[in-house]
Amino acid sequence: MLTKHSSCVVKPQPPERQDATPNMNNTDKEIELLKKEIKRLGEKSADGQPGIAIVKFGKLVRDDKASNIFEALNGTLRSAKRKGVIHFEGQMLLQGAHDDVDIVLLQDE
User: Fold this and answer.
1) Averaged pLDDT of the chain
2) What start and end residues bound the annotated signal peptide (predicted)?
3) Which helix (H) or strand (E) holds 55?
């Protein structure tokens, strides 16, 4: 029991997040998942072509597993492009209009 003369007060600590991974935020986690999905759905780059794997946007966006993983696929694609992990033509891809656009996986690390 604490009295007004007690000098030791223990403050409750916030619970640690179970899903917290050091040095990896949600965007980085989504990019890691994106890399796996591109490799799963795509084809290996041919000799002389840049990248590790290539997948059409339409194939990625219509895949059941991928659509269940990504809440905001376009946001993940844009973040991955900004970090140099993938490449695609244009700024944003829209289902239907850009189904034939190649998404090229440039980094696998």
Assistant:
1) 84
2) none
3) strand 53-56
pTM, two decimals, is 0.73
Q: Is the dihedral of CA 79, 83, 87, 92 positive or negative?
A: positive
User: Counting Cβ atoms within 10 Å, is residue 60 exposed (0-12), middle (13-18) or buried (19+)?
Assistant: buried
Q: Whats the size of the chain, residue-wise? A: 109
User: Which domains, from first to last, does the chain contain?
Assistant: 27-105 (1.10.10.1540)
In what side-by-side order are the strands of the sheet with 102-105? 43-44, 53-56, 102-105, 86-87
User: Is pLDDT of 104 > 60?
Assistant: yes
Task: Tell the residue number behind the tokens 């696998």, with chain if given.
Answer: 108
Place of tokens 């591109």: 38
Write out the two tokens for 84.
């140099």
Question: Which has the closest alpha carbon to 38: 94, 103, 107?
Answer: 103
40-84 confidence digits (pLDDT tens): 999 987 776 778 899 999 999 999 999 899 989 999 999 999 999
